[in-house]
Automatic annotation (TrEMBL):
It holds the Pfam family Arginosuc_syn_C. ATP binds at residues 10-18, 119. One of its GO terms (biological process) is L-arginine biosynthetic process. PROSITE patterns: ARGININOSUCCIN_SYN_1, ARGININOSUCCIN_SYN_2. The gene is argG. Signal peptide: none annotated. Homotetramer. It is an enzyme of class 6 (ligase). This is Argininosuccinate synthase. Keywords: Amino-acid biosynthesis, Arginine biosynthesis, ATP-binding, Cytoplasm, Ligase, Nucleotide-binding.
């Protein structure tokens, strides 16, 4: 069943992606499998993963640290759009997929592969994100999806791997499926499949419980330039360090847990637990700074764009014409979103305690009710008369029976 001669496989080191290596070669006639493991800050040691791929039959095992690009080129543009899927989930996992897809395509071109492959099943969102992103970046590349097509149970998959020297995995003590990166963690399956079951504390690693959070509030000052966070408490930081610092501060104060019923692209509902402390705090701060520096009509119009933008990311359309066009709009809105936001972190809550900007549209002279008030109160009567005219005409017509 030969489909390709040389394949670049997205590799995690787990059972499915390890079994993909001999399966592609034995069942589909692939001559050479190159694996690519991407370091997105998941905290795992990738050198053993690299060796495992070689032991499983890979000809070349690539490991790439993409944390800097992950934050600067993917997370921060989504932040500028205040991207929250279904107004709750800041897309920490979804944002990673277009980057991995890009690295797969780049590796395929570098090594002369005629196909790429991944280990996604047919039930989740990631298969869509990978397949569509790869097609957008290089439509001539074949995309092989062995785990979606082989029809093996978990036990059968393990047994297949053992035939080719892939060791049986140590029995999992945790029933959960977990995906981690620098932006957060996604936890599902096991007891969580019952939406009535309360998550236990053992599933969380990035955030403290509210009970264990400090008893005194912590203040955090975040500085932005054109909608991009650049400083924490006045200290300029690179994107990765900045993300780590905010994750730590929010997490130790019990901020960043999400428990939601999510509508997947494939049409089913799933119960998802997320830990995204840094992203949620950044979105709160960024949105507040926008309220200070953008006009009212722009702020309100942008909210609709943000919803569309979030859906595009979730649905695997990062590299789409609509997303590209919306990027142009978002970037234009960020030209004056520069300033500092002071946050108060306390017992699971993130409250904005202050904000300032050289581009602020807030006028004390107009807003004050004190003696310094310069607002022309007499002008209000004429404004209200003209503003309310359509309503008065409509009401009078109804009263006249027209």
């Amino acid at each position: 069943m030969g489909r390709a001669k040389k394949v670049v496989l997205a590799y995690s080191g787990g059972v499915d992606t390890s079994v993909c290596i001999p399966y592609l070669k034995e069942e589909w006639g692939v001559e050479e499998v190159i694996t690519l493991a991407v370091d997105l800050g998941q905290g795992a040691e990738l050198e053993p993963v690299k060796q495992k791929a070689l032991d499983s039959g890979a000809s070349i095992s690539l490991v790439e640290n993409a944390q800097a690009s992950f934050v600067a080129d993917y997370a921060f543009p989504a932040l500028q759009a205040n991207a929250l899927y279904e107004n709750r989930y800041p897309l920490s996992t979804a944002i990673a997929r277009p980057l991995i897809a890009k690295l797969l395509v780049d590796a395929a071109e570098k090594y002369g592969a005629d196909a790429v492959a991944h280990g996604c099943t047919g039930k989740g969102n990631d298969q869509v994100r990978f397949d569509v992103s790869i097609a957008a970046l290089n439509p001539t590349l074949k995309v092989l999806t062995p785990a979606r097509e082989w029809g093996m149970s978990r036990e059968e998959t393990i047994a297949y791997g053992e035939r080719f020297g892939i060791p049986t995995p140590v029995k999992k003590s945790s029933p959960y499926s977990i995906d981690s990166n620098l932006l957060g963690r996604a936890v599902e399956a096991g007891p969580l499949e019952d939406p009535w079951t309360e998550p236990t504390e053992d599933i969380y690693t990035m955030t403290r419980s509210i009970a264990d959070a400090p008893n005194e509030p912590e203040y955090l000052e975040l500085g932005f330039e054109k909608g991009i966070p650049v400083t924490v408490n006045g200290e300029a930081l690179d994107p990765v360090t900045l993300m780590e610092r905010i994750n730590e501060a929010a997490g130790r104060n019990g901020i960043g847990r999400i428990d939601m019923i999510e509508n997947r692209l494939v049409g089913i509902k799933s119960r998802e637990i997320y830990e995204t402390p840094g992203l949620l705090v950044l979105i709160d701060a960024h949105r507040d700074l926008e309220s200070l520096t953008l006009t009212g009509d722009l702020t309100q119009y942008k909210q609709g764009i943000e919803q569309t933008y979030s859906q595009l990311i979730y649905n695997g359309l990062w590299y789409s014409p609509l997303k590209e066009a919306l990027d142009g709009f978002i970037q234009k809105t960020q030209e004056h979103v520069t300033g500092t936001v002071r946050l108060k972190l306390f017992k699971g809550n993130c409250a904005v305690a202050g904000r300032k900007s050289a581009n602020s549209l807030y006028s004390m002279d107009l807003a004050t009710y004190g003696a310094e008030d310069t607002f022309d109160h007499k002008a209000a009567e004429g404004f209200i008369y003209v503003w309310g005219m359509p309503t008065r005409v409509w009401s009078q017509k109804r009263r006249d029976g027209v």
